[in-house]
Design brief:
The protein is of the alpha/beta class and 374 residues long. It has four domains: 7-72, Methane Monooxygenase Hydroxylase, Chain G, domain 1 (Up-down Bundle), CATH 1.20.58; 83-184 and 252-297, Rossmann fold; 190-244, no CATH class; 300-373, Ubiquitin-like (UB roll) (Roll). The chain has twelve helices and 16 strands. A six-stranded mixed sheet has the order 2-3-1-4-10-11, with helices on both faces. The chain has a five-stranded mixed sheet with strand order 13-12-16-14-15. Helix 1 packs antiparallel against helix 2 (22-35), helix 2 (22-35) runs antiparallel to helix 3 (43-72) and helix 7 (213-221) runs parallel beside helix 8 (237-244). The protein is globular. The mean pLDDT is 88.
């Protein structure tokens, strides 16, 4: 903070730092702009405040549109370990793919806009029941009409981009990017903590590709006033800003390619070249699609057993990869943690069958866990 600012500015800055909502942040920034001294020494500060204010106003408007879209949807709530959305242009074959994967009977027709509201099916992967939602067809050059798609995609864990080799998929990806949803882009590994001394400190400048130190600090100041930011992976300045922006959604995605029988091998190869950073699977390869979905979701299945009984192999618990015995206990019952004595493990994470472990033990896919409580 400049040393020659007014007491009113300093008070407004404190309100900004303590603000919980976007509206409070906007009000505080407007007060900071009104009270900041207007001379050459504060020119950069005023520009930074204006930039931050404009960004917050855009985000507020985006959230209002999102809320409106959410209110107009049928209540799509996450009711399984993962929610998968099927996205594509009208008549792209979404319903056919979902029916093939789930055994559902969604309406299929040769004309576009068959799906006018989100349709929910259940995808069963070795006992793990996941929600698969077909979204209405994406409409090109109609960002307002697609707000429902964006709103539901924000609560999703994975997107299936269902398309034929001839559709302008780049335009769909670009529209999602405009809505601040990054399809199949890895979120940079960035750690942020409050700077008790004030100001912005950046650790790992060298990991920002082709950017100057001043650019990185300016980007950070769009979102933070006092922060120590550690950049632990290589990324562009644009992706760095997206990672700092709390409204950004990073959504893993797989391309499911339909109507390959209508395309030449050259056309299919050209499509694969255009989207080489995506995993692309023909819609006819059901088992390959299911395997890719499970891998992309980074989930593990855990089976439970009671002492002296067989494991419940038809009732798996789904957890994020890297989860512990404590995570599994919390998902089963909150009292398990209070009454926990130890657990026994069979499977890949066990040193030997029935190994005795504590709450911090990391689980692996298809482990069997037996809880012992007081």
């Amino acid at each position: 903070m400049p040393t020659n600012v007014t007491a009113e500015y300093a008070a407004a800055e404190r309100r900004y730092q303590q603000a919980k909502s976007i509206q409070e942040k906007i009000a505080a920034l407007e007060e900071m702009l009104r009270t900041v001294p207007k001379h050459k020494g504060t020119e950069n500060l005023r520009q930074e405040l204006k930039s931050r204010l404009a960004k917050l106003k855009r985000e507020l408007e985006r959230r209002k549109k999102q809320q409106k879209a959410a209110a107009s949807t049928e209540a799509i709530k996450k009711e399984s370990p993962a929610l998968i959305v099927a996205i594509g242009f009208p008549n792209s074959g979404k319903s056919t793919v979902i029916n093939q994967l789930t055994g559902a009977k969604l309406q299929v027709a040769e004309y576009p806009f068959t799906t006018s509201t989100p349709a929910v099916a259940t995808l069963n992967i070795k006992g793990a029941k996941l929600q698969l939602v077909e979204l209405p067809g994406f409409i090109l050059n109609a960002q307002e009409s697609n707000t429902q798609l964006f709103a539901i995609s924000r609560i999703a864990d994975l997107a299936l981009l269902i398309t034929d080799p001839f559709s302008p998929l780049e335009e769909l990806i670009k529209a999602f990017d405009t809505a601040n949803i990054k399809l199949n882009q890895e979120k940079p590994n960035i750690k942020i903590k409050k700077n008790m001394l004030g100001g912005i400190d950046i650790i790992g400048f060298e990991n920002i590709i082709n950017a100057k130190k001043e650019q990185v600090i300016a980007a950070a100041r769009e979102f933070y006033t006092n922060a120590v930011i550690e950049i632990k992976s290589k990324c562009t300045i644009e992706l760095f800003k997206s990672a700092l922006d709390p409204s950004t959604k990073f959504l893993p995605a797989i391309i499911i390619l339909t109507r390959t029988d209508l395309a030449t091998q050259e056309q299919i190869d050209a499509f694969r070249e255009r989207f080489q950073h995506f995993e692309i699977i023909p819609s006819t390869e059901k088992e390959k699609i299911i395997t890719a979905i499970w891998k992309k979701l980074k989930l593990i299945k855990i089976y439970t057993k009671e002492p002296g009984k067989k494991p419940k192999l038809d009732e798996p618990i789904c957890l994020k990869k890297g989860s512990t015995v404590k995570d599994a206990a919390e998902q089963i019952h909150k009292d398990f943690i209070k009454k926990f004595r130890f657990a026994r493990i069979w499977g890949n994470s066990a040193k030997f069958p029935g190994a005795k472990v504590g709450l911090s033990h990391k689980l692996e896919d298809e482990d069997i866990i037996e809880f012992h409580v007081r």
